[in-house]
Amino acid sequence: MSALATTPAAGTHRPARTTRPSLARLTAVELRKATDTRAGFWLLTIIALAALGMVLIQIFTGSAEDRRFAEFFGGAQLPVGLLLPVVGILAVTGEWSQRTTLSTFALEPRRERVIAAKLSAAVLMAVGVVVASLAWAALANVVAPLVTDADASWSFSAEGLGRVVLFQVVNVLVGTAFGLALLNTPLAIVLYFLLPTLWTILGSTISALETPAEWLDLSSTTMPLLDGDLTGEAWAQLGTSLALWLALPLALGLWRVLRSEVK
Amino acid sequence: MITVEHLTKRYGAFTAVNDVSFTCVPGTVTGFLGPNGAGKSTTMRMISGLTPPSSGTATVNGVAFRDLPNPGRHIGVLLDASAQHSGRTGREILSLSAQLLGVGRKRVDAMLELVGLAGPAEKRRVGNYSLGMRQRLGLAHALLGDPSVLMLDEPANGLDPEGIFWMRGVLRDFADRGGTVMLSSHLLREVEAVADHLVVIGNGRIVADGAKDELLHAGGLYVRGLEPATLEKALTEAGLSVQPTRDGGFSVAADAESVGRAALAAGVVLLELRRADSGGLEEMFLRLTSHHDADDSTKDAA
After folding, report:
1. Is residue A94 part of a domain?
2. Are B205 and B21 in contact (CB under 8 A)?
3. Strand-pair partners of B182
4. Is residue A189 part of a domain?
5. Of A8, A21, B143, B161, which is most buried with the most CB atoms under 10 A?
6. What confidence tens digit (pLDDT) does each residue in B199-229 have?
7. Which residue range or ranges hold the ABC transporter domain (chain B) (predicted)?
8. What topology is assigned to B220-275 in CATH?
9. Is the Cβ of B170 closer than 8 Å to some Cβ of chain A?
10. How many domains does chain A have?
11. pTM of the model
12. What's the CATH number for B2-210?
């Protein structure tokens, strides 16, 4: 190997000082990991296309007064809210199924920092997707009046944007927490979709569960974030349901990941 | 420098690694030998902070792995070459880690070049790599942070003879420049050619630890006579430790004179009497790993 003689490859000069990789750098690496595989890339592409599809449907359905920027934007959130959590799940469980934890945790043995980076990356992706859906909504709002009757109003508030960002951030964090608690891709995806739905069905059929459901059913407690009906009670209900669906699996996941043996 | 002190790992009633201590010093290649399931990988995972030990400590350059700032700049670890995302290309895997380590793209290019994966191979997904190519990528990954210590678990697995020869060259060169190398294997021959120091583990315990030449010498003498049965009887009666070898000879832990005199006294014609060759190390390896419970004397070397 001529390379051996010319590269400092096997050189062993010691770096005088090394510093821990910053959380920003770890987050950048996690963002790259979420997008550099076929599964990650196509999942994000499908999310973007589904959001586009949603605003296109809105152009041709519903009533004219609903064809305005804020409504297009709101509609685009539904497929995003459904699929983005899967990105969060895969960001965690993919490492276990592909056994890349061996090198991930050998390069950053402080596993809590890796988890923090994964959560940060998930939040950034949620923000990124919401920003991208602003573009789809704007496109739809320009096109709609050309092809049909449309209100085409651009009225939109920063408060509304903030609520929607929070909605998507909450969703993707819940997905990531499920991934951490279960460390298994199919199990985490199935339970993520099944458990809250089951809860919703139970809450609506069994009258005794009606009140608990108002406080613990994530799909109903997060709705005000999209509708804008954020009363004090709605915030309290959102917080309670997040304790169950976010804080609990996150704590369980942290405990598992920090203690487990990586093989 | 890798220092392991009284490392123990228990899984319930089963003790996978039992009070293991050894040191890998700069400038040397340490072969970590043992049959499958002896505790090699568990020990290496404990050194790299992936498995919490039940008791004992391990340090790299004097620091516990967890406390190393950016560990990849100090120790390159390759525990399982197949533990990479099959959907990423070889280059992408190195680039990801390079970003985390804070080394540039040039280092990625240099490492791909070094392990012979530069060009079309670097753009292929690792799922399509042969095991040998994964080992090469794993070595490139371990070297990426320009560490002073390398720890490799069965790195020769899946490499062709030429690849094994090449890897020996890389590891030898790394150690000769002052680096510390620890590599494990269940095949003695693989390690024999490159290691200066051997640590042998069997059933979770260190059964031999010393310079390779010393341990080779400990393999003793090889003697073969015209009448094997008579020779064995004579040597045993002379109080020498005799171990029959597969070819009808014996390995004897004694000096040539004692063996010669015992043979002379019994009137046995000797056909061979010499220092045991590398095969002796193999016999030692087999003996140590199968008889270590009974033979406590070998543990004194540890």
Report:
1. yes
2. no
3. B30, B151
4. yes
5. B143
6. 999 889 998 898 988 776 665 788 999 989 9
7. 2-228
8. Alpha-Beta Plaits (3.30.70)
9. yes
10. 1
11. 0.86
12. 3.40.50.300
